[in-house]
Design a protein that fits this description.
With 460 residues, this protein is an alpha/beta fold. It is 46% helix and 7% strand. It has three domains: 130 residues, 3-Layer(aba) Sandwich (Rossmann fold), CATH 3.40.50; 108 residues, Serine Threonine Protein Phosphatase 5, Tetratricopeptide repeat, CATH 1.25.40.80; 179 residues, DNA Cyclobutane Dipyrimidine Photolyase, subunit A, domain 3. Strand 5, helix 5 and strand 6 form a beta-alpha-beta unit. The longest helix is centred in the middle third of the chain and has 19 residues.
Length: 460
């Protein structure tokens, strides 16, 4: 163990970075630095990396590399260790004679179980939660009956009334850093599947926020327009903690209520998953599990056409191709493609949720799983199952000139705004090799509604 400079404090802390890959507005870093000397640690957990191999892992590794670079600029070295955190973290803590291991809390099912194992393995060394990835302490938000919120609107009211602290000040340059032997960090290029990823790290997050600032005044009116690309694109940075939501909330003004509400949705879903961890993989509204869904060859054919962006519905295909190319998709398009998979193709929501988590660099378990359950009509604050997006009407509304479709579906770039969203109506059909629609939306909608009505009667 090498000490970078003399400590002004008496304690030694391991600062275990997880979903807080930043130096500013970091409560765990602030607490560790006040207590004394700090060893920054990141654990490459094989159990998390295996299901994330691809875009999400590439984005995480790029973000860790950016954090390491930021630490180096302050004379510190990010210690990388590969292995089970329940073995690695106690070993590192004992190597440096740590008085504590400090973390930002994790509310996800695996994270909580992992932290319990680490806490037990640390024995007499405390594992201290000094911060949270969210603006408020999620477990503290309850209804007047002491229950977790199932509906967003009252949650949002309580969340807003509770408020959040100001960003936490930090001075990494004044911190006393400790060091220890380190494993090499895997090269993110081996995990990003050749995607075009955004720049990673805290500095890049700040730059992206400044870019969004040029469009933020029109966010409430343009946020559903994928052709304009004026959303914040902060979700990948929030996912890895390159920025804290309270930092963003502190920068919002009174006219930014729409964006503030979007941040609250993220926290609502995290609170729901924390309270009902089984909802990550099971129906929040169990009755809907009785609907008819595609199986066998029908399932395989429908799912692959949707995944590859060849359904014959231009907006759906544009979104799915953007996902494969960027590891990201516009939020409105996410809702459209999810509704199409579940209610037009009759593919159970778990299949779509799994595909999103495999490809989204902002793939957050709580937001992803509960967002899919919302689309399927079986989640918290569930939209009625009989709400079915019309992919053509949606396309005309949110991409009126067809610019978003042209960007991602090159076969249709020569079409006009009047024809691009319904190319099957052209005299010779869609330009080759673009396919005809895989399903008739009107017929699929009626079949889905009939199935829902039959299910409702069985349970009435």
């Amino acid at each position: 163990m090498v000490k970078v400079k003399d400590s002004a404090g008496s304690d030694r802390s391991v600062l275990w970075f997880r979903r807080d890959l930043r130096l500013s507005d970091n409560g765990a870093l602030f607490a560790a630095a006040r207590a004394g000397a700090v060893l920054p640690l990141f654990v490459v957990d094989p159990r998390l990396m295996r299901p994330s191999i691809g875009p999400r892992a590439g984005w995480m590794l790029a973000s860790v590399r950016a954090l390491a670079h930021d630490l180096e600029s302050h004379g510190a070295h990010l210690v990388i260790r590969v292995g089970d955190p329940a073995e690695v973290v106690p070993a590192v803590a004992r190597e440096i004679g740590a008085d504590a291991v400090r973390i930002s809390a994790d509310y996800a099912p695996y994270g909580r179980a992992r932290d319990q194992r680490v806490r037990a393995a640390l024995d007499e060394i405390p594992l201290i939660e000094d911060d949270t990835p969210y603006a408020v302490e999620l477990d503290g938000l309850r209804t007047r009956h002491g229950e977790a919120y199932r509906v967003f609107t009252p949650f949002y009211r309580a969340w807003s009334d509770r408020g959040w602290p100001a960003p936490i000040p930090s001075d990494p340059g004044a911190t006393t850093w400790l060091s220890a032997p380190s494993d090499p960090l895997p090269d993110p290029r081996t995990a990003d599947a050749g995607l075009t990823l955004p720049d990673a790290g805290e500095w890049a997050a700040a730059q992206q926020w400044r870019t969004f600032g040029k469009h933020s005044s029109s966010y409430s009116t343009e946020r559903d327009r994928p052709d304009l690309d004026t959303t914040s694109r902060m979700s990948p940075y929030l996912k890895v903690g390159a920025v804290h939501p309270r930092t963003l909330l502190a920068r919002l003004g009174p006219d930014d209520a729409t964006y503030r509400k979007e941040l609250a949705w993220r926290e609502f879903y995290a609170a729901a998953l924390s309270r009902w961890p089984e909802s990550a993989h099971h129906y929040f509204q169990p009755m809907l599990s009785g609907l008819h869904y595609a199986e066998g060859e029908e399932l395989a054919d429908s799912l692959s056409a949707w995944q590859e962006g060849r359904t014959g519905y231009p907006l759906v295909d544009a979104g799915m191709r953007q996902l494969l190319a960027e590891g990201w998709m516009h939020n409105r398009v996410r809702m459209v493609v999810a509704s199409f998979l579940v209610k037009d193709l009759r593919v159970e929501w778990m299949h779509g949720a799994r595909h999103f988590m495999a490809h989204l660099i902002d793939g957050d378990l709580a937001s992803n799983q509960h967002g899919w359950q919302w689309a399927a009509g079986c989640g918290t604050d569930a939209a009625p199952y009989f709400r079915i997006f019309n992919p053509t009407t949606q396309a005309k509304n949110v991409d009126p000139d067809g610019d978003y479709v042209r960007r991602w579906v090159p076969e249709l770039r020569g079409l006009t705004a009047e024809t691009i969203h319904e190319p099957w109506l052209l005299p010779d059909g869609p330009p080759a090799p673009y396919p005809l629609p895989i399903v008739d939306h009107a017929a699929a909608r009626l079949a889905t509604l009939a199935d829902y009505e039959a299910l409702r009667k069985r349970h009435s």
